Amino acid sequence: VQGIWVWGENKKPRFTGLRIPQKDLDIIPSPNWEGVELQNYAPYHYEGHAHLPLQGSRGCTYKCTFCSETRIFRFKRGEKIKDEILAQVNKYGITHYGFVDSLVNGSMPQFKTLVTELAREVDKNVELRKLSLGGYARTHKEMDSELMAVAAKAGFKWLSIGVESGTPKILE
Q1: What is the b/e burial string over 55-79, where b = at least 16 CB atoms within 10 angstroms of the residue's CB?
Q2: Are strands 96-99 and 51-54 parallel, antiparallel or unpaired?
Q3: How far apart are CA 68 and CA 74, in angstroms?
Q4: DSSP assignment of 65-94
Q5: Which of 10, 109, 122, 123 has the fewest CB atoms below 10 angstroms from its CB?
Q6: pLDDT < 70: residue spans in the chain
Q7: What value, to the nearest 5°, has the Cα angle with vertex 164 and ends 160 and 170?
Q8: What is the pTM of this model?
């Protein structure tokens, strides 16, 4: 497997070589949690619910000088993320999710698709009102109260927006 460190036969660490980043995240299959007693982890989450991670993107759209995630930004389609959430809800009964992305809204068109499509599903199935989503986001002129109302309906309970000073433009 490329891209990892392993112990070599000489008992010294050995790098297996650079791994080319997967550009199309839509082809990565949804996680399989079979055999994991997800409810056993609920007491360790601050809300007392079983909680699953989601990943809709890799990298970041900003170019902060201190960060290594700025070179390439890749993302799943919003509809694919919605389908993954619904599949996990149906398969495992889990309704609490945290995005582990650097930016859940790095692609604003895909973020809009995700929250719009998920909000429609909530309209169809009242059980989906139990959804609880959150993640890191960036400021953007399209992150207005109208979009945030749709995101809240879709299940977003929190978005963490950092206040960085990685570039002179951000400082301004």
Answers
A1: bbbbbbbbeeeeeeebeebbbbbbe
A2: parallel
A3: 14
A4: TT-SS-S--EE--HHHHHHHHHHHHHHH--
A5: 10
A6: 163-167, 170-171
A7: 115
A8: 0.84
